[in-house]
Here is the input.
Amino acid sequence: MKSKLRVAVIGTTGLPARYGGFETLAHHLVDQLGPEVDFTVYCSGKYFDKSPKRLSVFNGAKLVYLPLNANGYQSIIYDMISILHAIRHADVVLALGISGAMLFPVLKLFTRKKILINIDGQEWKRPKWNWIAKKVLGFSEKMAVRFADVVITDNKVIQQYVHNCYHRTDAWLIEYGGDHVSKQPLTNYHLEQFPFLKKSYAFNVSRIEPENNIHMILDAFSRAPEQTLVMVGLWNHGKYGMDLKAKFSNYANIHLLDPIYDQDQLNSIRSNAKFYVHGHSAGGTNPSLVEAMCLGLPILSYGIDYNRETTNHRARYFSNAEELLKQLSFFAQTDVSQMGLELQPYGLQKYAWQRIASLYYSAFKGESNAVAELSFNISNQSVQPINLKTKSTKSAVA
Here is the structure.
């Protein structure tokens, strides 16, 4: 009997997935590839209480816990220890994020084990980091791109960045999946708990951080009382979120909800929105954006190149609060449902977990032509233009 390929996944908080793109990615890789791959997933003990309920196996994947935080400054040590442990037993190490990449030059001196890394979205450029952290993360990115056997990018813009800045032409493009979400009705329970859902509303779910332009979105909606916003996030985690909640929670058209970890409840609220508003200004292919596309929601997005690429340039975009305010006026006057209907098939095809997992499996096995062979080549398919009309019959696509 042929032995399974042994793959260690490091860089996540662990499984089962709670909140985060990398955790969701790990979950679906384990779910899709379990019959072919013997997975070990490294988990942060800080996120999972040490008790009889803590799992040792999840969907066939072995779970290894470390008493460190997977995020913030501890992530560097967390990832390095995970890599050193994993390299002893795994055939392939899949690093999600660049925190441990400073170790790669040393590892390559002592092992021929294959190292794959998803470099995420230019982590060192995020405004939340101070200059020291940016220097460290910038160096880690350089080590990742130079010494990893396979570099994975989740957005074509980042793939081009790797090519232009590091002259590495073999970076893979493997996005995140989003077809695990499903449209669900609003029940009497939801309407009793959240009576504002009876009206038309926009929706957003985000980490409450400046780079996601939460302040910009809230400012615009506070000046557009005809549009209701429902936003889900962890508001009490830091000063930024607490200040915003204190400032905007009293607006009748703005409803700020705490995190919703029940996927069915989240899907019910999200999938019945009139449109999805997306403010992320950093990173690559954002999971919440592709999930909204797969649900068939019209998209109003911050106009950075990552988001335009993710939505195939078929959404509407803004770059500041004033532009967002104008777009909200447009959405108030326009039936935008057709936008969502035309984004949905693109999302379900491009961001299908079966496709994503197949590409990762090919990368694990070292099939250099796998992207060309397995990609759905969506960029070459014809996409019919979206024809939305306002009362003045002007073109809708920004």
Residues 369-398 have pLDDT under 50 and may be disordered. The two ends are 56 Å apart (CA to CA). The chain has two domains: 5-173, 188-348.
